[in-house]
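for the writeup, i need someone to sanity check this before i put it in the appendix. the sequnce is what the collaborator sent (i think, or maybe the updated version? ugh). structure was predicted straight from it, no edits. if anything looks off just tell me and ill rerun, i have time this weekend
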Amino acid sequence: MNRNRMMIGALACTICFAVMLTAPLPQTQAEAAIYQITYKLPPNPEKYLFLNKQMVSITNPQPLPVGVHPYSSGDFLSDMHGGGDPQSLNKMYYSYNLKFQTSKKGFLWNVYDFIGTLPPAYPADVNLDELDNRIRSLERLTSEDEQVIQSRAQIHMDARLKPLIQAGYVMPDEIDDEMATKEFVATVLYRMFGATRPYHEGIDLKDSENVAVRWAVEVGLPGFEVD
């Protein structure tokens, strides 16, 4: 009995070694290159960036677009909410920023900065440096002062939106304060890149007839999976 078990064990080991020795191995670097390791991001990766922002450093290689007055989306939020009261803004900044970044205007703001070559559309009769100095000199904010601060935010917003409208990437009646839907995002990007990366009609979605959405799925934009 024991002898049979030993013979079966030896036979199993022989088969295993034979398989290992005869299994095909990549012989060249080209053959080895077909083996790929992929990593799938966890859901909601942005929460890790917010929680570990000291560990993450992202630099936009693009300089400020030509003629754009230094003014960030954080400055926009500060002007629109709080009117110069940093403490009250800090309590709600995460909520304000999340709402802005996922809105149509927030998406278009980032698109404009991404392009980096469209000249801004500032009003000819507005001196931005003078406006900045006037706002900095304010001590106690009145309702009129808050309107002036919010008007600065609107000037900078319009300076980014109008060039995108003039380029044909977004229509005026499509812009509002609502959330940027996938259809809206796909439509803007399709207008931007559709000519150089055309839609080949290789995707047939059951839940959308929108060509821009089908194009986004076909070219593999993040967040536009087939299912």
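The mean pLDDT is 77. Residues 134 and 148 are 9 Å apart (CA to CA).
thx in advance!!
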